[in-house]
Amino acid sequence: MRVVIAEDLALLRDGLTRLLQAFDFEVVGSVDNGPSLLPALMNHRPDVAVVDVRLPPTFTDEGLQAAVAARTELPGLPILVLSQHVEQLYARELLTDGAGGVGYLLKDRVSNVGQFIDAVRRVAAGGTVMDPEVVAQLLARRRRDDPLADLTPREREVLASMAEGRSNAAIATKLFVTEKAISKHINNIFSKLGLPPSDDDNRRVLAVLAYLNS
Amino acid sequence: MVGHNWPVDEATVDPRKAVALARQWLGRGVRAALLAPLVAVLSLGVNLPLFILSVVSLALMPVLGIGFALFPVVTALVRPAVGVQRRLARTFGVDIPRPYRPVPAVPYGTWARFRHTVTDPATWLDFAWLLPGAITGFVLGLVGFVVTAYGLEGVLHVPLLLYGIVDWYGYGVFWPMDNAFEAWLALPQGALLLVIGLTAAPWLLWVHYSFARFFLSPTRSAELRRRVQRLTETRADAVDTQAAELRRIERDLHDGAQARLVSLSMNIGLAEELMKRDPDAAVRLLAEARESSGAALADLRSLVRGIHPPVLAERGLDGAVHAIALAVPADVDLDIDVPGDLPTPVESAAYFAVAEALANIAKHSGARTATVHMRHTGEALWISVTDDGAGGADPAAGTGLRGIERRLAAFDGTMVVVSPPGGPTVVTMELPCALSSPKTSPSSGTG
């Protein structure tokens, strides 16, 4: 699988490269600033890009802007965005095109190598992966007349895992129940939230996130 | 100094505006005509005795030091009396700030008290005003009142005559009055005088207080002294806050990230040792180390957010406020129009102020909707945060709003909280600052 990396700190860039190479990814390009990211993506057309939000020269959100711009040029280009902090605002911007193939994770998550590599693969396959913290923020933001209040604690757990982009099988393993039980929970959640049912994992995640973000 | 608002703005053809102007004229006129006798009485009945007292206490200065003890007492009487005039002045569009230096907490009769009294130039300016003020206040107040009252009498002359309240003596140019026609002519004469009186009374009092302002407002140096005092206070506050912040950061780093990194390196070192002998234990330790590194990162993240939120660095005030709004459990409307770059410290203060105001919504008010307005007026950043919650917020009660107040004070900024029980709560903040270049939004830069 071909990857492009955008990260300005050499230490982290090399670390990511080494990590991905160890899991049989081919790092076809790595850039250390915002302006050269878009050309690199257009040139290499990688299977997935791993992009830091904050890049030179402005050290603001150049990486995120480049990622959004690249997906306008190449719709559905899988991009995993990494950051030292997560903001719902950014999650929303990444998700707006509804095309999938988007990930948004804290840099900390890289330390759990297995999960990180799994996330990269899922994004590359067109899935949606949101950091648990984004999901937690979304769920914590209780509103009045909140339909989430009707969910059982178990259903909330399932919803959180789903928003992180996990498949039914993965959720079942995580919660130590059968896949069938999970799909029952998911049907309940969808009917309580008034969302149209869907079998496609990614569509499902996007629907949930769009709902939570609204 | 606030400019006066006389004469009345010129009338325009718009009838609604004309009606409004007429009502404004009438309101001012009536108020001035009613207050004019009070001003006249105060000027004569208060200023004159105080002037005489002051002169007597000064004259007694050489006699056994009686004046030395008496003069500060007289001054203490003069100041509130002049204070009443200051308040009246404001009703007539003349703003006269208090010029006095802070009074030392020492009893009358002491040298310090006396020294304070005689060295404050405001004491002598008050004294200098007492007599001329008595004259202008009495004459102008009386004229304003008498003209209006005489006009009113003319308008009501015939009915008053019929009911026998006034005698058949005369009015205006007809003196004495010979017949009923001349009695009726009192009406137009009275009306004219009434209009003149109602127009002139506010103006006369404005003249009186503009004259008073000449004496009673702070001298340039007194104004500067007050400014210096205020700056000294806010600077001390800012320095204190800064020091407390640094102390908190130091403690958070020491107890949080630093401690976790120590345990992390211990675990890694131990795992290194165990790698050969007990690989399973080594793996467990490494997993623990990873967890500990995650916790250290989380600590650092929340610390960084408290120092300078990354989203503020990345998106500027506009974007950062959007980000806060997303996290608040109410629908937040944003109306932000700041066409330029704010100085970074101001931006940061404004961010934390809005964050605190919105956090209060989550914590206390239970509002469904909130609105954030943000404007730059050319001289100041103006922010208001409104919510439809329970109200009853009191900046004196909580540390949060007090904290904002202090943070803003460092920039000469102010905060006003209006929060009646039952709501709505409106927090208004003003931060004097200049905008630098036209906005080049960080979010619109090329990738």
Topology diagram in text:
The complex is a heterodimer of chains A (214) and B (447).
Chain A: E1 2-6, H1 10-22, E2 26-31, H2 37-44, E3 48-52, H3 62-73, E4 79-83, H4 88-95, E5 102-106, H5 113-124, E6 128-130, H6 132-140, H7 153-163, H8 168-175, H9 179-193, H10 201-213
Parallel strand pairs in A: 1-2, 1-3, 3-4, 4-5, 5-6
Chain B: H1 15-59, H2 66-91, H3 111-119, H4 121-155, H5 157-162, H6 180-184, H7 186-216, H8 220-277, H9 279-307, H10 310-327, E1 331-337, H11 344-365, E2 369-376, E3 380-387, H12 399-409, E4 414-418, E5 425-432
Parallel strand pairs in B: 1-2
Antiparallel strand pairs in B: 2-3, 3-5, 4-5
Helix pairs in contact in B: 1-2, 1-4, 1-7, 2-3, 2-7, 4-7, 8-9, 10-11, 11-12
Structure report:
The complex is a heterodimer of chains A (214) and B (447). Chain A is built from ten helices and six strands, in the order E-H-E-H-E-H-E-H-E-H-E-H-H-H-H-H. Chain A has 214 residues and is of the alpha/beta class. Chain A folds into two domains: 2-130, Response regulator (Rossmann fold), CATH 3.40.50.2300; 135-213, Arc Repressor Mutant, subunit A (Orthogonal Bundle). In chain A, strands 2-1-3-4-5-6 form a six-stranded parallel beta sheet, sandwiched between helices. In chain A, strand 4 (79-83), helix 4 (88-95) and strand 5 (102-106) form a beta-alpha-beta unit. The model of chain A has no long low-confidence stretch (mean pLDDT 87). Chain B has helices spanning 15-59, 66-91, 111-119, 121-155, 157-162, 180-184, 186-216, 220-277, 279-307, 310-327, 344-365, 399-409; strands at 331-337, 369-376, 380-387, 414-418, 425-432. In chain B, strand 4 (414-418) and strand 5 form a beta hairpin. Chain B has 447 residues and is of the alpha+beta class. Chain B folds into three domains: 15-216, no CATH class; 227-307; 312-437, Heat Shock Protein 90 (2-Layer Sandwich). In chain B, helix 1 (15-59) packs antiparallel against helix 2 and helix 8 packs antiparallel against helix 9 (279-307).
